[in-house]
Amino acid sequence: MMLEPDDLLRIIDYAHEFSQKSSVATNPKIYLADSIGYYNLKEISIKEKVLGEEDAIWPGCGAGKSGFGILHNGDIVPCTSLRNENYIQGNIRDTRLIDIWNGGFKQFREFSASQLKGFCSDCMYSSICLGGCANTRYCVEGCIESENKYCLYGVMVKKELNKLLRADNDYKLADIKRQISDCIKSDNYQLLIAYIYEILPRYLSGTEIWIYLMNTLAFSYFKIELFEKTLEVCQQVLKNDSTNLDALKGYGLSLYHTGETTTGKQILFDCINNSKNSCSDIYSDLVNIMRIEGNESEAARLIAEASKKYPDFLIKRGY
Ligand code: SF4
């Protein structure tokens, strides 16, 4: 029997209810498998009861990193669930275990969030989670780089997304803007990213609405700290509109956060110096950067300069 991803919602509700009712002395306790999905409040609460607060948050799969499996014939695999021949690292009848451990598991130890596809590649937890249980991804989609469709977090976001989508596909711009604004007000940037990807194919690249959606997408990626993705989206906007201030700002900020700090800051300063539009939020971003770098005198200079240009700067920005 194969469950559908949505079935996880009923399972977690049942498990949570059971777990809440059980006292410390009650048996059986509920131990959730690693493959049920991650970063869901109910899942965390169930795990807290049996594992304690510190171990209740999924730290990513340890297959091939902190553990391995030995099959009946001596084959060494990253995890006893992941036994496909592509993942066998050696056999203890031929090679010493310590040599297999030291020389193998490269694919697992070097696996990064940037290899993930689908929803996992846009997920705010991807750099910690790395897509969750590798075997779930392999069994469902045939490769460990694929999206984990059996993740509670992903299932919950998709459920919320379905509430936003229209069955008749008849979207009005005002409705889209309202839904985007609602997501921003509730800080639900993960949902906003999924929503924009549904809406975006309706518009030709380079049109005003496309640029608005792309800039909102870049902003959302930035809010959940997926800076490489912010960079990619800003670059796409700038290909279509090289002077777009929001995209330039996102580009500068994401460069800064991906390690190109000098170029990133220079782009932000250029925005301030060259743009005729209001740049008060860019001043604010630069002030934050200067403070991160411990450069209080430059932060103070920027605040003074911005206050001269924008009289309400101090009040609006809360300095
Ligand atoms: S969606 Fe993917 S990356 Fe995000 S928490 Fe779930 S398994 Fe992990």
Poorly predicted sequence stretches spanning 5 or more consecutive residues: none
Number of helices: 17
Heteromolecules bound = iron/sulfur cluster
Counting DSSP E segments of at least 2 residues, the number of strands comes to 3
Please provide the ordered H/E string of secondary-structure elements: HHEEEHHHHHHHHHHHHHHH
Broad structural category: mainly alpha
Q: What gap, in angstroms, lies between the N and C termini?
A: 59 Å
Integer-rounded radius of gyration:
24 Å
**Average of per-residue pLDDT values:** 93
Net shape: globular
Strand neighbour order, sheet with most strands: 1-2-3
Oligomer: single chain
* Percent range for β-strand residues: under 5%
Largest sheet, in brief, is: 3 strands, antiparallel
**Portion of residues within helices:** 55-70%
